[in-house]
């Protein structure tokens, strides 16, 4: 095992190509992270396996959980708090956009009939660059947790709709098939 520190010279760029945790400068390869040096002779690649966990990166196709931060006429802004299947939480404040055309397979004329501010939603990442674009068209995607817009009590699913047992109000949302089962 070979421990590297950031800035350590590892090899010439003529011998290896830089992999994760390695960068090239002036024809030389250097460690970008503290960790274990891994030499992949088959692919002639050098990489550094981090000694500590690195910030979480979000990729297209991943499922994310987030809170509806704001709603406009044609889109909702979602604060992403977790990537499903990964133990580590998102470390920085990451906002994604959910356009009205990507909310449901059905036609959506009013976003407020699909999502409300502070709803907890599950979405799929469509794009990460230049901005995070989300999609909730699939059945597993949509609202996974919500509160009554009047009394703020937790809403329950009754006959396919959200129902408040406290104030007896029904609310429409684009429900995930996993409503009430997702924990942050």
TrEMBL record:
GO CC, one annotated term: exosome (RNase complex)
Keywords: Exosome
Exosome complex component N-terminal domain mapped to chain residues: 3-40
Protein's GO biological process: RNA processing
Pfam families the record matches: ECR1_N
InterPro entries reported for this sequence: Csl4, Exosome_cplx_N_dom, Exosome_Csl4_arc, NA-bd_OB-fold
Annotated SUPFAM superfamilies: Nucleic acid-binding proteins (SSF50249), Ribosomal L27 protein-like (SSF110324)
HAMAP family named among the record's database cross-references: Exosome_Csl4
Protein name: Exosome complex component N-terminal domain-containing protein
Lineage: unclassified sequences, metagenomes, ecological metagenomes
């Amino acid at each position: 095992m070979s421990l590297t520190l950031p800035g350590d010279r590892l090899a010439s760029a003529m011998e290896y190509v830089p992999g994760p945790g390695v960068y090239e400068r002036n024809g030389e390869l250097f460690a970008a992270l503290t960790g274990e040096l891994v030499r992949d002779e088959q692919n002639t690649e050098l990489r550094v396996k981090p000694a500590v966990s690195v910030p979480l990166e979000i990729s297209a196709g991943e499922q994310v959980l987030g809170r509806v931060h704001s709603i406009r006429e044609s889109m909702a802004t979602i604060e992403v708090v977790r990537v499903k299947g990964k133990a580590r939480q998102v470390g920085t404040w990451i906002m994604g956009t959910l356009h009205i055309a990507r909310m449901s397979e059905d036609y959506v004329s009013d976003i407020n009939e699909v999502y409300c501010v502070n709803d907890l939603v599950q979405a799929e990442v469509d794009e990460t660059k230049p901005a995070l674009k989300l999609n909730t068209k699939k059945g597993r995607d949509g609202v996974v947790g919500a509160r009554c817009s009047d009394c703020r009590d937790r809403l329950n699913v009754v006959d396919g709709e959200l129902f408040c047992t406290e104030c007896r109000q029904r609310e429409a949302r684009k429900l995930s098939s996993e409503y009430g089962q997702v924990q942050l």
